[in-house]
Amino acid sequence: MRDSPEFDWDEHNERHLALHSISPLDAEDVLSDDHILQEFQMEGGEQRWIAVGATRIGRILSVVFTIRGEAMRPITGWETDKETADLFVREWGQE
Fold it and tell me: Where exactly are the structural domains of the chain?
């Protein structure tokens, strides 16, 4: 793994990700290692990105995040659909 970026965590985003069975460690794995930036959107004047990547135990997840100051702030996430997971595996050679 590369040097880990700084993350912005609080009760709100930790709880929201937990509703989707994603831990802070899962989200950090996706955002800290090889991932695909799938799409970009503006939400409330803030840029948000969707990253597709793998956790250390091999789950392939989509994680929505933004950048606030110098930190990455995970917002929400979900298990990636098969088509997107296949794209990730083709790109990075992981299963």
Answer: 11-92
